[in-house]
Design goal:
Blueprint (H helix, E strand, L loop, with lengths): L4 H26 L5 H17 L6 H10 L1 H23 L6 H28 L4 H14 L1 H20 L7 H19 L15
Length: about 210
């Protein structure tokens, strides 16, 4: 592996290029809203493999992960649609809407969506379990790591605001948020015993 300036530059270009490609694949796979859950599962899994484990991830790998997570991730993503619908109905049928009255449903809905998409879907992509177990564990982890959940929510909100202000940022900000969140998820999974501790390398005997 090259360690000189040109080698470091090549490595940096490869990392940035991989990030932009994964971001684009996620956007394309989210275009049919029904596949947004599976696309997010593949986005997380591909970012983890590329930036945490250092593996190369191809577009074919990404699409294969979308298909492999379609059933569970779509079920979890559908619950997110229900959460948004309930929030909207709350506003529609509120006879006297006020700023204070709107804040609570919006915050609860955003928290629920973060537990579903920020915790539940990555659990489904990372581990083998039933959809119900991933949902339960996602809610438990989201609430027991409430500061991290709120930080994820703030990051997603800032990314949305940035894209709303300057649309080309849609090709950069989602992967930036996902990379940061993936590292946080790995620490949380390890803390709760979801990941086996790394085994020390064997010592060569003389």
């Amino acid at each position: 592996m090259a360690t000189g300036p040109s080698g470091r530059l090549t490595s940096a270009v490869n990392v940035v290029g991989s990030a932009l490609i994964l971001n684009l694949l996620w956007l394309l796979c989210c275009l049919p809203l029904v596949t947004a859950g599976a696309a997010t599962a593949a986005f997380y899994d591909s970012v983890r493999k590329r930036f945490v484990e250092g593996e190369e991830v191809t577009a074919r790998d990404f699409l294969r992960t979308v298909v492999g997570n379609a059933r569970q991730a779509t079920a979890i993503g559908s619950l997110g649609i229900v959460v948004v619908a309930v929030c909207l109905l709350t506003f529609l049928f509120d006879p006297t809407p006020s700023l204070g009255g709107m804040a609570a449903p919006v915050l609860l809905s955003a928290l629920a969506l973060t537990c579903l998409f920020g915790w539940g879907i990555p659990l489904g992509a990372r581990f083998t379990n039933s959809t119900g177990a991933h949902l339960r564990n996602g809610v438990v982890l989201g609430l027991t790591h409430l500061p991290s959940t709120l930080l994820c929510l703030v990051g997603a909100g800032l990314a949305f605001a940035g894209v709303w202000t300057y649309f080309p940022l849609v090709f950069v900000l989602p992967v930036a948020v996902m990379v940061a969140w993936t590292f946080r998820l790995e620490r949380a999974f390890a803390k709760h015993g979801y990941l086996a501790p790394a085994q020390p390398a064997p010592v060569a005997r003389p």
